[in-house]
Write a structure and sequence with these properties.
This protein has about 280 residues and is α+β, with helices and mostly antiparallel strands. It is built from nine helices and 13 strands. The two termini are about 25 Å apart. This is Thiol:disulfide interchange protein.
Length: about 280
């Protein structure tokens, strides 16, 4: 979860291909962000809310260098500018709020992304709306884990992931693909994905498309639109997007061995949680 928050701050990349830009952005005068060259702010005095705010931000990465620390517009919070983004931190240093797309409320004490926990439940329910028969599945005989991957046929990271599908399976991971044509509905990308989902052998068609091999153009009753809409509602901003069965986002592209390690850790963390009281939800 730290990885996702660091991506919001621009400190790392989630190794994903971006969704097509908003065509209205240029018309509305929205300019792309540029690298921030403002020098780091001086270290605040120890024991102050400002010092606790800086310490909270550095729970994500000790290499983060705040450029501004000061009072927030609402009482009980400090605002910190880091990597060109504003972060709000409670004066006791426990809670950190990252506003904007992909933002989150983070508990620095428990190292928990509170927003992700809520969003994971939503994603899990959204995934249930897509019939199992509409997924393109590459799985070992007895998978240890199953992940859902929103994919696009043109995205380089999607192609890299698919080129390693046998290794994911060797790691005990089943991959269930859903369509997310990142250039949007009606695009050439979208038409290719419709052709794949209309093919008699979807697995073969998907593999061919990701290898720049021709896929016969087809049209049929399909769920590509549904899958795309679910991806948007699930907070997808780039492909691939990897989700666990619990709806937790674990990437971007993640190499097979690293993904297995991540899934093992999530399973261990889940097993270590206290059991819900009898009669609880």
């Amino acid at each position: 979860m730290k990885r996702t928050l660091l991506a919001v701050l621009g400190a790392i990349s989630l190794s994903a291909c971006a969704q097509a830009p908003d065509p209205d952005a240029a018309a509305n005068g929205k300019a792309p962000m540029v690298a921030n060259t403002v020098p780091a702010a001086p270290e605040p005095d120890a024991g102050t809310p400002e010092a606790r705010a800086v310490a909270a931000v550095r729970t994500l990465s000790e290499n983060l260098k705040p450029e501004h620390v000061g009072a927030a517009p609402m009482p009980g919070f400090r605002e910190v500018i880091v990597s060109g983004q504003i972060v709000y931190v409670s004066d006791d240093g426990r809670y950190m709020f990252l506003p904007g797309q992909g933002g989150a409320l983070y508990d620095t004490t428990t190292q928990t992304n509170l927003s992700e926990e809520t969003f994971a439940h939503l994603r899990r329910d959204l995934l249930k709306t897509i019939p199992a028969g509409e997924r393109i599945v590459f799985a070992p005989q007895d998978p240890k884990y199953t992940v859902t991957v929103f994919t696009d046929v043109e995205c380089g990271y999607c192609r890299k992931l698919h080129s390693e599908i046998a290794e994911y399976n060797r790691q005990g991971i089943a991959i269930e693909y859903l369509a997310f044509p990142r250039m949007g509905l009606g695009s050439e990308d979208y038409k290719k994905m419709v052709s794949i989902w209309c093919a008699s052998d979807r697995k073969q068609a998907l593999t061919a498309a990701k290898s720049d091999k021709p896929v016969p153009s087809q049209d049929c009753k399909n769920t590509v639109n549904m899958q795309y809409n679910v991806g948007q509602r699930a907070g997808l901003t780039g492909t691939p997007m990897i989700l666990t069965e619990d709806g937790v986002q674990v990437g971007g592209y993640v190499p097979p061995e690293a993904l297995r390690q991540t899934l093992d850790k999530l399973a261990a963390d889940r097993a270590a949680r206290p059991s819900a009281p009898a009669g609880g939800a």
